[in-house]
Amino acid sequence: MSYARQLLDTFPRSLNVDADVLVAAIDAVSDCAQACTSCSDADLAEPDVAEMVKCIRLCLDCADVCIATGRVISRQTEFDASLTRSLLEACVTACRSSGDECERHAAMHEHCRVCAEACRRCEQACQQLLTAMM
Fold first, then answer.
1. 2: how many CB neighbours lie within 10 A of its CB?
2. pLDDT by residue (tens digit) across 3-57?
3. What is the pLDDT of residues 50-71, one digit of tens each?
4. At what angle do helices 110-133 and 81-105 cross, to 10 degrees?
5. How far is the first Cα of the chain from the last one, in angstroms, to the nearest whole number?
6. Dist CA 134 CA 10 (whole Å)
7. Alpha-carbon distances, residue 52 vs 33, 59, 105 (angstroms)
8. CATH number of 17-133, picked from 1.20.1270.360, 2.40.30.170, 1.20.20.10, 1.10.10.10
């Protein structure tokens, strides 16, 4: 059981969205931020690092957006739906961009394949949370 699930199970008020969808998004953004951070670091160690600059940049941007999104969606007290929607939309966009770029390198770099997978999972989880909020 994830810490997000454990903490949401102890939340003293009712949640604004389905707990399962929220937990999936929190866990996905956390995993994606970690994957993107590790992937960008691995990119820096590749002999063709000049070819990886765009991938590094998009991974770092995605990690930052995921971290911010995870922090906001983890806070349910006095929930601001408008802000949350904006962050989730930004996260979907960042994950799509980073995932697309990592997929371009996946055949040559296993870390990019793993990162692309994490980005796709996060993109989907954030989209599902957006849908649940409507």
1. 12
2. 988 888 888 788 788 999 999 999 999 999 999 999 999 999 999 999 999 999 9
3. 999 999 999 999 999 999 999 9
4. 160
5. 27
6. 25
7. 18, 10, 9
8. 1.20.1270.360
Q: Read off the tokens for 53.
A: 């600059």
Q: Where are the domains of the chain?
A: 17-133
Q: Which two tokens stand for residue 55?
A: 């991938």
**Two tokens at 52?**
């990886």
Tokens of 105: 């390198």
Structure tokens at 94: 């960042």
